[in-house]
Amino acid sequence: xxxxxxxxxxxxxxxxxxxxxxxxxxxxxxxxxxxxxxxxxxxxxxxxxxxxxxxxxxxxxxxxxxxxxxxxxxxxxxxxxxxxxxxxxxxxxxxxxxxxxxxxxxxxxxxxxxxxxxxxxxxxxxxxxxxxxxxxxxxxxxxxxxxxxxxxxxxxxxxxxxxxxxxxxxxxxxxxxxxxxxxxxxxxxxxxxxxxxxxxxxxxxxxxxxxxxxxxxxxxxxxxxxxxxxxxxxxxxxxxxxxxxxxxxxxxxxxxxxxxxxxxxxxxxxxxxxxxxxxxxxxxxxxxxxxxxxxxxxxxxxxxxxxxxxxxxxxxxxxxxxxxxxxxxxxxxxxxxxxxxxxxxxxxxxxxxxxxxxxxxxxxxxxxxxxxxxxxxxxxxxxxxxxxxxxxxxxxxxxxxxxxxxxxxxxxxxxxxxxxxxxxxxxxxxxxxxxxxxxxxxxxxxxxxxxxxxxxxxxxxxxxxxxxxxxxxxxxxxxxxxxxxxxxxxxxxxxxxxxxxxxxxxxxxxxxxxxxxxxxxxxxxxxxxxxxxxxxxxxxxxxxxxxxxxxxxxxxxxxxx
Length: 561
Hints:
Helix content is 50%, strand content 16%. β13 and β14 (439-447) form a beta hairpin. By secondary structure, the chain is an alpha+beta fold. α13 (226-235) crosses α14. The strands form four sheets. The chain has a five-stranded antiparallel sheet. A four-stranded antiparallel sheet has the order 1-9-3-7. A four-stranded antiparallel sheet has the order 10-17-12-15. The chain has 23 helices and 17 strands.
Protein backbone atom coordinates (compact mmCIF):
# COMPACT_ATOMS: atom_id res chain seq x y z
CA UNK A 1 0.00 0.00 0.00
CA UNK A 2 2.99 2.33 0.35
CA UNK A 3 4.09 1.94 -3.25
CA UNK A 4 4.67 5.38 -4.71
CA UNK A 5 3.70 6.99 -1.40
CA UNK A 6 6.18 9.85 -1.66
CA UNK A 7 4.50 10.99 -4.87
CA UNK A 8 0.97 10.77 -3.40
CA UNK A 9 -1.11 12.60 -0.83
CA UNK A 10 -0.09 11.38 2.65
CA UNK A 11 -3.25 12.35 4.52
CA UNK A 12 -5.50 10.53 2.05
CA UNK A 13 -3.40 7.36 2.06
CA UNK A 14 -2.73 7.30 5.80
CA UNK A 15 -6.36 7.31 6.87
CA UNK A 16 -7.34 3.75 5.82
CA UNK A 17 -3.91 2.25 6.56
CA UNK A 18 -3.66 3.61 10.12
CA UNK A 19 -6.76 1.60 11.00
CA UNK A 20 -4.80 -1.58 10.19
CA UNK A 21 -1.69 -0.60 12.15
CA UNK A 22 -1.98 -3.40 14.72
CA UNK A 23 -2.12 -6.02 11.96
CA UNK A 24 0.84 -4.71 9.97
CA UNK A 25 4.12 -6.67 9.97
CA UNK A 26 7.30 -5.04 11.25
CA UNK A 27 8.24 -3.68 7.82
CA UNK A 28 4.74 -2.29 7.38
CA UNK A 29 4.88 -0.48 10.71
CA UNK A 30 8.23 1.02 9.77
CA UNK A 31 6.82 2.21 6.45
CA UNK A 32 3.79 3.65 8.24
CA UNK A 33 6.01 5.70 10.55
CA UNK A 34 7.83 7.08 7.52
CA UNK A 35 4.49 7.86 5.89
CA UNK A 36 3.43 9.79 8.98
CA UNK A 37 6.74 11.65 8.85
CA UNK A 38 5.98 12.70 5.26
CA UNK A 39 2.56 13.97 6.39
CA UNK A 40 4.21 15.89 9.25
CA UNK A 41 6.68 17.45 6.80
CA UNK A 42 3.79 18.70 4.65
CA UNK A 43 2.46 20.49 7.74
CA UNK A 44 5.94 21.94 8.49
CA UNK A 45 6.09 19.89 11.70
CA UNK A 46 9.77 19.09 11.21
CA UNK A 47 10.57 18.11 14.80
CA UNK A 48 7.66 15.65 14.81
CA UNK A 49 8.89 14.20 11.50
CA UNK A 50 12.36 13.66 13.00
CA UNK A 51 10.87 11.85 16.00
CA UNK A 52 8.83 9.55 13.73
CA UNK A 53 11.90 8.79 11.62
CA UNK A 54 13.87 8.02 14.79
CA UNK A 55 11.19 5.50 15.75
CA UNK A 56 11.36 3.92 12.30
CA UNK A 57 15.17 3.71 12.43
CA UNK A 58 15.00 2.05 15.84
CA UNK A 59 13.17 -0.82 14.08
CA UNK A 60 15.29 -0.82 10.91
CA UNK A 61 18.56 1.15 10.95
CA UNK A 62 19.00 0.74 7.16
CA UNK A 63 15.53 1.95 6.15
CA UNK A 64 15.99 4.25 3.14
CA UNK A 65 12.78 6.25 3.56
CA UNK A 66 13.44 6.99 7.25
CA UNK A 67 16.97 8.22 6.55
CA UNK A 68 15.86 10.28 3.57
CA UNK A 69 12.90 11.93 5.32
CA UNK A 70 14.95 12.72 8.44
CA UNK A 71 17.57 14.32 6.22
CA UNK A 72 14.90 16.48 4.56
CA UNK A 73 13.61 17.52 7.99
CA UNK A 74 17.10 18.50 9.17
CA UNK A 75 17.59 20.37 5.88
CA UNK A 76 14.34 22.32 6.43
CA UNK A 77 15.50 23.24 9.96
CA UNK A 78 18.82 24.52 8.64
CA UNK A 79 20.86 21.73 10.30
CA UNK A 80 22.82 20.99 7.14
CA UNK A 81 25.61 18.92 8.72
CA UNK A 82 23.06 16.42 10.10
CA UNK A 83 21.25 16.47 6.74
CA UNK A 84 24.49 15.63 4.91
CA UNK A 85 25.14 12.69 7.26
CA UNK A 86 21.65 11.23 6.75
CA UNK A 87 21.69 11.74 2.97
CA UNK A 88 25.00 9.86 2.80
CA UNK A 89 23.68 7.02 4.99
CA UNK A 90 20.57 6.83 2.78
CA UNK A 91 22.85 6.31 -0.22
CA UNK A 92 24.37 3.29 1.56
CA UNK A 93 20.95 1.71 2.27
CA UNK A 94 20.48 -1.77 0.72
CA UNK A 95 17.22 -0.59 -0.89
CA UNK A 96 18.58 2.70 -2.22
CA UNK A 97 18.78 1.35 -5.79
CA UNK A 98 14.97 1.08 -5.93
CA UNK A 99 14.50 4.83 -5.62
CA UNK A 100 15.13 7.88 -7.81
CA UNK A 101 18.72 8.43 -6.75
CA UNK A 102 19.20 11.57 -8.84
CA UNK A 103 16.95 13.40 -6.35
CA UNK A 104 19.07 12.08 -3.48
CA UNK A 105 22.27 13.26 -5.17
CA UNK A 106 20.60 16.64 -5.82
CA UNK A 107 19.50 17.13 -2.19
CA UNK A 108 22.90 16.03 -0.89
CA UNK A 109 24.63 18.45 -3.26
CA UNK A 110 22.58 21.40 -1.97
CA UNK A 111 23.25 20.46 1.66
CA UNK A 112 26.98 20.16 0.96
CA UNK A 113 26.92 23.53 -0.79
CA UNK A 114 25.39 25.21 2.26
CA UNK A 115 28.09 23.82 4.57
CA UNK A 116 30.79 25.06 2.18
CA UNK A 117 31.94 21.66 0.83
CA UNK A 118 31.71 22.79 -2.79
CA UNK A 119 33.94 20.14 -4.38
CA UNK A 120 31.83 17.35 -2.88
CA UNK A 121 28.64 19.20 -3.88
CA UNK A 122 29.85 19.34 -7.49
CA UNK A 123 30.69 15.62 -7.38
CA UNK A 124 27.14 14.76 -6.23
CA UNK A 125 25.39 16.96 -8.78
CA UNK A 126 27.49 15.41 -11.56
CA UNK A 127 26.26 11.97 -10.44
CA UNK A 128 22.67 13.25 -10.48
CA UNK A 129 23.03 14.59 -14.03
CA UNK A 130 24.46 11.26 -15.21
CA UNK A 131 21.30 9.54 -13.99
CA UNK A 132 18.92 12.13 -15.50
CA UNK A 133 20.71 14.31 -18.07
CA UNK A 134 17.51 16.06 -19.27
CA UNK A 135 16.46 17.36 -15.84
CA UNK A 136 16.72 21.17 -16.03
CA UNK A 137 16.67 21.56 -12.24
CA UNK A 138 19.96 19.63 -11.98
CA UNK A 139 21.69 21.85 -14.56
CA UNK A 140 20.51 24.96 -12.69
CA UNK A 141 21.99 23.58 -9.46
CA UNK A 142 25.32 22.75 -11.09
CA UNK A 143 25.48 26.23 -12.58
CA UNK A 144 24.96 27.80 -9.15
CA UNK A 145 27.60 25.53 -7.57
CA UNK A 146 30.08 26.45 -10.33
CA UNK A 147 29.39 30.13 -9.74
CA UNK A 148 30.04 29.74 -6.01
CA UNK A 149 33.32 28.01 -6.88
CA UNK A 150 34.21 30.98 -9.15
CA UNK A 151 34.26 28.59 -12.13
CA UNK A 152 32.37 30.95 -14.40
CA UNK A 153 33.37 29.26 -17.65
CA UNK A 154 31.91 25.97 -16.44
CA UNK A 155 28.78 27.82 -15.31
CA UNK A 156 28.47 29.34 -18.78
CA UNK A 157 28.55 25.83 -20.32
CA UNK A 158 25.91 24.62 -17.83
CA UNK A 159 23.59 27.49 -18.74
CA UNK A 160 24.13 26.83 -22.45
CA UNK A 161 22.97 23.24 -21.93
CA UNK A 162 20.06 24.51 -19.85
CA UNK A 163 19.04 26.92 -22.62
CA UNK A 164 19.07 24.04 -25.14
CA UNK A 165 16.90 21.86 -22.89
CA UNK A 166 14.49 24.73 -22.16
CA UNK A 167 14.00 25.55 -25.84
CA UNK A 168 13.60 21.89 -26.68
CA UNK A 169 10.79 21.56 -24.13
CA UNK A 170 9.13 24.80 -25.32
CA UNK A 171 9.59 26.82 -22.09
CA UNK A 172 10.16 30.25 -23.63
CA UNK A 173 10.08 32.23 -20.39
CA UNK A 174 12.57 29.85 -18.86
CA UNK A 175 14.76 30.20 -21.95
CA UNK A 176 14.85 34.00 -21.60
CA UNK A 177 15.97 33.69 -17.97
CA UNK A 178 18.63 31.20 -19.03
CA UNK A 179 19.82 33.57 -21.77
CA UNK A 180 20.33 36.29 -19.19
CA UNK A 181 22.28 33.90 -17.00
CA UNK A 182 24.44 32.76 -19.92
CA UNK A 183 25.19 36.37 -20.79
CA UNK A 184 26.28 37.11 -17.22
CA UNK A 185 28.37 33.93 -17.01
CA UNK A 186 30.14 34.82 -20.26
CA UNK A 187 30.93 38.30 -18.97
CA UNK A 188 32.26 36.91 -15.70
CA UNK A 189 34.34 34.38 -17.63
CA UNK A 190 35.77 37.24 -19.65
CA UNK A 191 36.54 39.16 -16.46
CA UNK A 192 38.27 36.08 -15.11
CA UNK A 193 40.50 36.15 -18.19
CA UNK A 194 41.44 39.76 -17.50
CA UNK A 195 39.27 41.58 -20.05
CA UNK A 196 38.58 44.89 -18.34
CA UNK A 197 35.81 46.02 -20.67
CA UNK A 198 33.86 42.80 -20.20
CA UNK A 199 34.32 43.06 -16.45
CA UNK A 200 32.79 46.53 -16.48
CA UNK A 201 29.80 45.25 -18.46
CA UNK A 202 29.38 42.47 -15.91
CA UNK A 203 29.15 45.00 -13.10
CA UNK A 204 26.57 47.02 -15.02
CA UNK A 205 24.45 43.92 -15.65
CA UNK A 206 24.77 42.54 -12.15
CA UNK A 207 20.98 42.29 -11.81
CA UNK A 208 20.79 39.53 -14.39
CA UNK A 209 21.86 36.82 -11.95
CA UNK A 210 20.24 33.39 -12.10
CA UNK A 211 19.70 33.10 -8.35
CA UNK A 212 17.12 35.76 -7.29
CA UNK A 213 18.23 35.41 -3.65
CA UNK A 214 21.81 36.32 -4.56
CA UNK A 215 20.55 39.22 -6.63
CA UNK A 216 18.55 40.63 -3.72
CA UNK A 217 21.40 39.96 -1.31
CA UNK A 218 23.91 42.05 -3.25
CA UNK A 219 21.66 45.12 -3.42
CA UNK A 220 22.03 47.72 -0.66
CA UNK A 221 19.20 47.51 1.95
CA UNK A 222 17.55 50.82 1.02
CA UNK A 223 17.26 49.79 -2.66
CA UNK A 224 15.61 46.40 -2.13
CA UNK A 225 12.07 46.12 -3.45
CA UNK A 226 9.16 44.67 -1.45
CA UNK A 227 9.30 41.51 -3.58
CA UNK A 228 13.02 41.11 -2.88
CA UNK A 229 12.52 41.66 0.86
CA UNK A 230 9.81 39.00 0.86
CA UNK A 231 12.07 36.57 -1.02
CA UNK A 232 14.96 37.14 1.38
CA UNK A 233 12.66 36.63 4.38
CA UNK A 234 11.40 33.38 2.88
CA UNK A 235 14.78 31.84 1.97
CA UNK A 236 17.13 33.18 4.66
CA UNK A 237 16.45 30.33 7.11
CA UNK A 238 18.47 28.08 4.80
CA UNK A 239 21.54 30.27 5.32
CA UNK A 240 21.54 30.76 9.11
CA UNK A 241 19.57 29.11 11.90
CA UNK A 242 19.37 32.47 13.73
CA UNK A 243 16.62 33.58 11.33
CA UNK A 244 14.33 30.66 12.25
CA UNK A 245 13.27 32.27 15.54
CA UNK A 246 11.51 35.20 13.82
CA UNK A 247 8.13 35.40 12.04
CA UNK A 248 7.99 36.53 8.43
CA UNK A 249 7.02 40.16 9.10
CA UNK A 250 10.01 40.66 11.43
CA UNK A 251 12.34 39.05 8.88
CA UNK A 252 11.07 41.37 6.17
CA UNK A 253 11.89 44.36 8.35
CA UNK A 254 15.31 42.96 9.23
CA UNK A 255 16.24 42.59 5.56
CA UNK A 256 15.54 46.28 5.04
CA UNK A 257 18.48 46.88 7.43
CA UNK A 258 20.87 43.93 6.84
CA UNK A 259 23.87 44.83 4.71
CA UNK A 260 26.19 42.39 2.90
CA UNK A 261 29.90 42.87 3.57
CA UNK A 262 32.85 41.10 1.92
CA UNK A 263 36.21 40.40 3.54
CA UNK A 264 39.49 39.07 2.18
CA UNK A 265 41.66 36.57 4.14
CA UNK A 266 43.35 38.34 7.05
CA UNK A 267 41.01 41.33 6.95
CA UNK A 268 39.72 42.43 10.36
CA UNK A 269 35.95 42.48 10.93
CA UNK A 270 35.91 43.36 14.65
CA UNK A 271 38.74 44.74 16.82
CA UNK A 272 39.25 44.39 20.57
CA UNK A 273 38.16 47.55 22.39
CA UNK A 274 35.97 48.88 19.56
CA UNK A 275 32.41 50.05 20.09
CA UNK A 276 29.66 47.45 19.42
CA UNK A 277 28.18 49.04 16.32
CA UNK A 278 26.75 45.94 14.61
CA UNK A 279 25.68 42.30 14.93
CA UNK A 280 27.10 39.88 12.33
CA UNK A 281 25.95 36.69 10.56
CA UNK A 282 28.48 34.67 8.54
CA UNK A 283 27.08 33.61 5.16
CA UNK A 284 30.11 32.04 3.46
CA UNK A 285 33.73 31.38 4.38
CA UNK A 286 35.43 31.08 7.78
CA UNK A 287 36.29 33.69 10.40
CA UNK A 288 38.63 33.46 13.39
CA UNK A 289 37.69 34.65 16.90
CA UNK A 290 40.71 35.93 18.81
CA UNK A 291 41.34 37.30 22.30
CA UNK A 292 44.37 38.95 23.83
CA UNK A 293 46.87 36.65 25.50
CA UNK A 294 46.38 38.38 28.84
CA UNK A 295 42.61 37.84 28.89
CA UNK A 296 43.06 34.28 27.63
CA UNK A 297 45.33 33.38 30.52
CA UNK A 298 42.88 34.76 33.09
CA UNK A 299 39.71 33.30 31.54
CA UNK A 300 41.04 29.81 30.89
CA UNK A 301 40.67 30.17 27.12
CA UNK A 302 44.32 29.21 26.67
CA UNK A 303 43.34 25.53 27.02
CA UNK A 304 41.19 25.83 23.90
CA UNK A 305 43.55 28.03 21.89
CA UNK A 306 44.47 26.76 18.46
CA UNK A 307 47.07 29.33 17.40
CA UNK A 308 48.95 32.41 18.54
CA UNK A 309 49.38 35.46 16.34
CA UNK A 310 51.07 38.57 17.67
CA UNK A 311 49.44 39.48 20.94
CA UNK A 312 46.23 37.60 20.10
CA UNK A 313 45.18 33.97 20.52
CA UNK A 314 42.65 32.14 18.35
CA UNK A 315 39.92 30.53 20.47
CA UNK A 316 37.29 29.59 17.88
CA UNK A 317 36.56 29.32 14.17
CA UNK A 318 33.11 30.30 12.90
CA UNK A 319 31.64 29.11 9.60
CA UNK A 320 28.56 29.79 7.46
CA UNK A 321 25.43 30.22 9.58
CA UNK A 322 27.25 31.27 12.77
CA UNK A 323 26.63 34.64 14.46
CA UNK A 324 28.91 36.91 16.47
CA UNK A 325 29.08 40.34 18.07
CA UNK A 326 25.84 40.18 20.08
CA UNK A 327 27.20 40.01 23.65
CA UNK A 328 28.85 43.43 23.59
CA UNK A 329 25.65 44.94 22.13
CA UNK A 330 23.43 43.49 24.86
CA UNK A 331 25.89 44.36 27.63
CA UNK A 332 26.55 47.81 26.12
CA UNK A 333 30.29 47.46 26.56
CA UNK A 334 33.37 47.46 24.32
CA UNK A 335 34.39 44.42 22.31
CA UNK A 336 36.41 41.82 24.22
CA UNK A 337 37.49 39.81 21.16
CA UNK A 338 38.64 40.35 17.60
CA UNK A 339 37.18 38.61 14.55
CA UNK A 340 39.36 38.16 11.47
CA UNK A 341 38.52 36.53 8.13
CA UNK A 342 40.44 33.24 7.66
CA UNK A 343 39.21 32.77 4.08
CA UNK A 344 37.20 34.89 1.68
CA UNK A 345 34.07 35.59 3.69
CA UNK A 346 30.68 37.22 3.22
CA UNK A 347 29.01 38.58 6.33
CA UNK A 348 25.65 40.23 7.02
CA UNK A 349 25.76 43.24 9.35
CA UNK A 350 22.77 44.50 11.38
CA UNK A 351 23.11 47.88 13.18
CA UNK A 352 23.36 47.51 16.97
CA UNK A 353 20.22 49.52 17.71
CA UNK A 354 18.19 47.44 15.26
CA UNK A 355 19.48 44.28 16.93
CA UNK A 356 18.41 45.51 20.38
CA UNK A 357 14.97 46.49 19.06
CA UNK A 358 14.56 43.11 17.36
CA UNK A 359 15.49 41.19 20.51
CA UNK A 360 13.08 43.30 22.53
CA UNK A 361 10.31 42.74 19.96
CA UNK A 362 10.89 38.98 20.09
CA UNK A 363 10.75 39.00 23.90
CA UNK A 364 7.51 41.04 23.84
CA UNK A 365 5.90 38.60 21.40
CA UNK A 366 7.00 35.60 23.42
CA UNK A 367 5.56 37.22 26.53
CA UNK A 368 2.26 37.86 24.75
CA UNK A 369 2.15 34.23 23.58
CA UNK A 370 2.74 33.02 27.15
CA UNK A 371 -0.03 35.27 28.47
CA UNK A 372 -2.42 33.92 25.83
CA UNK A 373 -1.53 30.33 26.72
CA UNK A 374 -1.98 30.92 30.46
CA UNK A 375 -5.28 32.72 29.88
CA UNK A 376 -6.69 29.56 28.27
CA UNK A 377 -5.59 27.37 31.20
CA UNK A 378 -8.36 26.58 33.69
CA UNK A 379 -6.06 27.37 36.59
CA UNK A 380 -5.87 31.06 35.59
CA UNK A 381 -9.31 31.64 34.08
CA UNK A 382 -10.33 34.17 36.76
CA UNK A 383 -7.02 36.07 36.84
CA UNK A 384 -6.49 39.65 35.74
CA UNK A 385 -4.23 40.68 32.86
CA UNK A 386 -1.71 42.09 35.33
CA UNK A 387 -1.47 38.80 37.22
CA UNK A 388 -1.14 36.81 33.98
CA UNK A 389 1.58 39.14 32.73
CA UNK A 390 3.49 38.69 35.99
CA UNK A 391 3.35 34.89 35.79
CA UNK A 392 4.32 34.95 32.10
CA UNK A 393 7.32 37.19 32.83
CA UNK A 394 8.81 34.72 35.32
CA UNK A 395 7.94 31.59 33.30
CA UNK A 396 10.83 30.17 31.28
CA UNK A 397 10.31 28.21 28.06
CA UNK A 398 12.14 24.88 27.96
CA UNK A 399 12.37 22.27 25.19
CA UNK A 400 12.89 18.54 25.74
CA UNK A 401 13.56 15.74 23.28
CA UNK A 402 11.64 12.48 23.33
CA UNK A 403 12.73 10.21 26.20
CA UNK A 404 14.13 13.05 28.31
CA UNK A 405 13.23 13.01 32.02
CA UNK A 406 11.89 16.37 33.20
CA UNK A 407 11.94 15.48 36.92
CA UNK A 408 12.50 12.30 38.91
CA UNK A 409 10.17 10.79 41.51
CA UNK A 410 10.83 11.91 45.12
CA UNK A 411 13.02 14.78 43.93
CA UNK A 412 12.64 18.15 45.65
CA UNK A 413 9.71 20.02 44.11
CA UNK A 414 11.34 23.24 42.92
CA UNK A 415 9.30 24.12 39.82
CA UNK A 416 5.74 24.27 38.55
CA UNK A 417 5.43 23.04 34.93
CA UNK A 418 2.84 23.74 32.23
CA UNK A 419 2.74 21.55 29.12
CA UNK A 420 2.62 23.79 26.06
CA UNK A 421 3.30 21.21 23.33
CA UNK A 422 3.78 17.45 23.21
CA UNK A 423 3.00 14.53 25.53
CA UNK A 424 4.54 13.81 28.96
CA UNK A 425 4.22 10.35 30.52
CA UNK A 426 3.70 10.08 34.30
CA UNK A 427 5.64 7.10 35.71
CA UNK A 428 5.20 5.83 39.28
CA UNK A 429 7.83 3.62 40.92
CA UNK A 430 6.50 1.41 43.74
CA UNK A 431 8.26 -1.29 45.80
CA UNK A 432 6.47 -4.65 46.00
CA UNK A 433 5.08 -5.64 49.40
CA UNK A 434 6.30 -9.24 49.12
CA UNK A 435 9.64 -10.83 48.24
CA UNK A 436 11.71 -10.17 46.20
CA UNK A 437 10.63 -6.56 46.97
CA UNK A 438 11.53 -5.33 43.50
CA UNK A 439 10.73 -1.82 42.27
CA UNK A 440 7.90 -1.63 39.71
CA UNK A 441 7.75 1.30 37.25
CA UNK A 442 4.27 1.88 35.83
CA UNK A 443 2.86 4.51 33.48
CA UNK A 444 -0.22 5.87 35.21
CA UNK A 445 -1.29 8.62 32.77
CA UNK A 446 -0.14 11.08 30.11
CA UNK A 447 -0.23 14.89 30.14
CA UNK A 448 -0.83 17.05 27.06
CA UNK A 449 -1.12 20.74 26.16
CA UNK A 450 -2.76 22.74 28.96
CA UNK A 451 -1.98 20.24 31.75
CA UNK A 452 0.39 21.09 34.60
CA UNK A 453 2.49 19.22 37.16
CA UNK A 454 4.87 20.00 40.01
CA UNK A 455 2.11 21.62 42.05
CA UNK A 456 3.88 20.43 45.22
CA UNK A 457 6.29 23.35 44.76
CA UNK A 458 3.33 25.69 45.39
CA UNK A 459 1.29 23.68 47.88
CA UNK A 460 4.27 22.71 50.05
CA UNK A 461 7.25 24.91 49.09
CA UNK A 462 9.33 23.80 52.10
CA UNK A 463 9.07 19.99 51.96
CA UNK A 464 7.24 19.21 48.69
CA UNK A 465 8.44 16.19 46.66
CA UNK A 466 7.50 15.07 43.17
CA UNK A 467 5.12 12.07 43.50
CA UNK A 468 6.18 10.57 40.14
CA UNK A 469 8.71 10.77 37.34
CA UNK A 470 7.73 12.81 34.28
CA UNK A 471 9.25 11.59 31.01
CA UNK A 472 8.68 13.07 27.53
CA UNK A 473 6.87 10.76 25.13
CA UNK A 474 7.36 13.21 22.23
CA UNK A 475 9.18 16.46 21.59
CA UNK A 476 7.88 18.67 24.43
CA UNK A 477 7.74 22.40 25.13
CA UNK A 478 7.15 23.41 28.75
CA UNK A 479 6.70 26.60 30.73
CA UNK A 480 8.62 26.40 34.02
CA UNK A 481 8.14 28.60 37.09
CA UNK A 482 10.68 28.33 39.90
CA UNK A 483 9.11 28.37 43.37
CA UNK A 484 11.62 31.03 44.47
CA UNK A 485 10.14 33.41 41.91
CA UNK A 486 6.54 32.83 42.93
CA UNK A 487 5.03 35.80 44.74
CA UNK A 488 3.16 34.50 47.76
CA UNK A 489 0.60 37.26 47.34
CA UNK A 490 -1.20 35.53 44.47
CA UNK A 491 -1.18 32.07 46.11
CA UNK A 492 -4.40 32.59 48.06
CA UNK A 493 -6.40 29.84 49.74
CA UNK A 494 -8.83 29.75 46.80
CA UNK A 495 -5.91 29.35 44.37
CA UNK A 496 -4.49 26.49 46.45
CA UNK A 497 -7.88 24.76 46.48
CA UNK A 498 -8.22 25.23 42.72
CA UNK A 499 -4.75 23.75 42.16
CA UNK A 500 -5.67 20.70 44.26
CA UNK A 501 -8.86 20.15 42.25
CA UNK A 502 -7.18 20.43 38.83
CA UNK A 503 -3.95 18.57 39.65
CA UNK A 504 -3.20 15.07 38.42
CA UNK A 505 -4.72 12.31 40.55
CA UNK A 506 -1.87 9.97 41.47
CA UNK A 507 -3.04 6.42 42.30
CA UNK A 508 -2.14 4.78 45.58
CA UNK A 509 0.73 2.30 45.72
CA UNK A 510 -1.64 -0.67 45.81
CA UNK A 511 -3.39 0.55 42.67
CA UNK A 512 -0.06 1.06 40.89
CA UNK A 513 1.00 -2.50 41.77
CA UNK A 514 -2.30 -3.82 40.45
CA UNK A 515 -1.80 -1.90 37.19
CA UNK A 516 1.68 -3.42 36.84
CA UNK A 517 0.29 -6.90 37.53
CA UNK A 518 -2.45 -6.45 34.92
CA UNK A 519 0.16 -5.41 32.38
CA UNK A 520 2.29 -8.49 33.14
CA UNK A 521 -0.74 -10.74 32.70
CA UNK A 522 -1.55 -9.12 29.38
CA UNK A 523 2.08 -9.41 28.18
CA UNK A 524 2.07 -13.13 28.97
CA UNK A 525 -1.29 -13.56 27.23
CA UNK A 526 0.02 -11.70 24.21
CA UNK A 527 3.13 -13.90 24.10
CA UNK A 528 1.03 -17.07 24.20
CA UNK A 529 -1.12 -15.79 21.32
CA UNK A 530 1.98 -15.03 19.26
CA UNK A 531 3.38 -18.51 19.95
CA UNK A 532 0.07 -20.08 18.98
CA UNK A 533 -0.02 -18.16 15.69
CA UNK A 534 3.55 -19.20 14.91
CA UNK A 535 2.81 -22.89 15.46
CA UNK A 536 -0.43 -22.64 13.49
CA UNK A 537 1.43 -21.20 10.54
CA UNK A 538 3.98 -24.03 10.67
CA UNK A 539 1.19 -26.58 10.74
CA UNK A 540 -0.90 -25.12 7.92
CA UNK A 541 1.84 -24.01 5.55
CA UNK A 542 4.06 -27.04 5.88
CA UNK A 543 7.00 -24.74 6.41
CA UNK A 544 8.96 -27.08 8.67
CA UNK A 545 11.76 -26.98 6.17
CA UNK A 546 12.33 -23.40 7.28
CA UNK A 547 13.37 -24.60 10.71
CA UNK A 548 15.83 -21.77 11.21
CA UNK A 549 12.92 -19.33 11.36
CA UNK A 550 10.11 -21.33 13.00
CA UNK A 551 11.84 -23.93 15.19
CA UNK A 552 11.65 -21.66 18.22
CA UNK A 553 8.56 -19.39 18.03
CA UNK A 554 9.42 -17.76 21.37
CA UNK A 555 12.86 -16.73 20.09
CA UNK A 556 11.34 -15.10 17.03
CA UNK A 557 8.36 -13.58 18.82
CA UNK A 558 9.39 -10.04 17.91
CA UNK A 559 9.14 -10.91 14.20
CA UNK A 560 5.58 -12.17 14.64
CA UNK A 561 4.59 -9.04 16.52
